């Protein structure tokens, strides 16, 4: 909890710093602040209390999620130090909004009642609505912000309605009470309760971009500034899955069969649509958007397996996914600049020839996303497969395996570009900070696979 | 033996990585060749130290991610050693084959080849199903780049097809392994010796067999999953084709012996007829197409397909003779196909094409090359006293136990094999003296081909040491089958 307070203060401090003329301090303060909150999370060894009248609880898993998200944000801030040097827009506000969003992400990993879940989602999302539209002069960015806001509000409205209905039937926001109610009525759930659960599921499905609520993601990913896209595809996704897992993996484990079936259909569709549509993308950010939908499918598989190890597997999966995609986004930004703003995957062409180390890093990260051993991405997918088969979902897992092959195809497309020689190779300029971020991401994506360091 | 086992995997890995990163263009080939020769030395030492009576050896084990069944366990028995030996024997020749006509950027090309070799050693020495899988997939990555970068026409599309095919097989295999692993008591890791004990109900074995077998069937490839193979073999650079045909397809045979037969014996028995039938159909069909080829490289590709069909059929005889024959034949075929491809690449550089109708009468211009070709071909058509004969003899004996008709089909394919090989020789070497101005075999050619030909005859006359490697593990496999 002290970490959340620190982050909130940090956000305000950043806003104040933005008022001054000298903005040198911004990035260091933001980085130190987030690092401090991660450290507080990790080393504040006092017995973990329940906060806000039992509405929040930091258990070991949520602590892990928080530390990971803070770590990823940290990487993005290092990236931002260079990124914003070039764009020179309202830097302080950007940092502050991301920090506020991170507060929401922390709430999402630790809620114990539905109101806190709602609060977390809103605190997470509202800064993002602004950030997605941050490039004011860009038509696409404005469209992204507007679209995200509009659809997000719809999702929120349904979500709130769902909470209201569930509250009405179960008589409490407390998840343990709702869980008991769900268990008692698992065979013959009252219609209003069912509808409530559906609406809650809909709201969450929107946040994690599960089919059929994924339509916003390619447009928003494409339009938003790359830094924000990276934030959305990593921190926000991690937080979303921490929330989903907490809701139906930990608390309401006995779902009525109708809801259960619907969730399986959503999982299957998410795997199918994400992977198949990504095949047709040549725009890098759109490709990442659809592939992120595909990864949502794998993660849902882990959530629905509802095994004792699911939380751990989801943590590992989101962490490795975040590492690889942050690194790629950083690399993409540099390559895009070298290619005069082109945003298609052809900006990677000739990368290996020109910059062997960058090419190798790209290779590792892409292989990790594709799930090829011995990278971390393979371990992550493999863990999900083990969980799902263990829980008896044999055919869905087989389907997921086939979908993973489809996924490999489009990641290979980028790898192919990276290793194809270009007639007019472009030199990519990379600051020390960005180089370090890419190095951390690539080494992480390999190391966590070869030597999982107790994370599995 | 722990050090030796690890060293044989690590040496090519580290040297390969060093070549990729440092890119010393000048010495790359020499470094790679030396490394592969050193690996051969280590493989021979490993074989020499192995006492088949004492049974399988676990050389190294270490916890990796035991919670999901993954442990780092390396070890070997006779079958593993045969495969290690095979890999170690052919790689110096594959690397040496690039001595004259090196691929551009030799450091990267040779580095990738060493990485492949390391991954292959890993596949054959792994004693845990998931560790096996990690290396199995890993071996694909350097090959992917070899094909993509140095392949011939339409390499992008063909490489993708190859990769997707094998990865699809790989992932279904992974799924099958996960399923089998989860039938073990909780807390066990998926080590081979644990998996051999796994009991899977016959009903589940019926489908699980195909899930597990599919990946290996694609890798070999078995008819009708072969459509990637002729294109890939033809498009790949010669050294790439040697790796694919010489060693990588043997991962399929090895995988069946190591994972499919012990885990789903009932499934294997149930589908025995289907697999043998398909294999033999493929065998005949490929032989027929090989016979119709005008392109020598394609001919080798199809002939390889045909031979593998026979090996696969022999594996599924599920008796000692057949399985031993198939395993013996993996070594025989590896040596044969590498020599054959080397010859074809030699012709390609001299004549400028691999089309048979352009050649003809080359014997006059290149008598020594023609002689070498003849000797290699004798091995390829499995004349008595060559190693191919030993393998085929055993395989047919095994098949006879199952059905005389199957054996008959197999024999027909062998006859066809002899026909298309001799016909190819006739069309390229014999006839009216060629007008092409081509050079005869030189020193490098002899360095590569003479040892390979010698191996062909030595193994043909004295196969006992290799068969000794196989006796005990094949017996053990049979006890699991029944």
What does this structure look like?
With 456 residues, chain A is mainly α. Chain A has helices at residues 2-19, 26-43, 60-87, 91-110, 114-132, 139-170, 175-184, 191-207, 216-223, 226-251, 257-279, 284-305, 310-338, 351-354, 356-370, 376-390, 394-419, 432-450; strands at 50-51, 56-57. In chain A, 77% of the residues lie in helices and 1% in strands. In chain A, strand 1 (50-51) and strand 2 form a beta hairpin. In chain A, helix 4 runs antiparallel to helix 5 (114-132), helix 6 runs antiparallel to helix 8 and helix 11 (257-279) packs antiparallel against helix 12 (284-305). Chain B has 482 residues and is mainly α. The A-B interface holds A 309, 356, 360, 367, 372-374, 378-379, 382-383, 385-386, 389-390, 394, 397-398, 401-402, 404-405, 408-409, 412, 416, 419, 452, 456 and B 20-21, 23, 64-65, 67-69, 130, 133-135, 137-138, 140-141, 144-145, 148-149, 156, 160, 163-164, 167-168, 171-172, 174-175, 178-179, 181-182, 211.
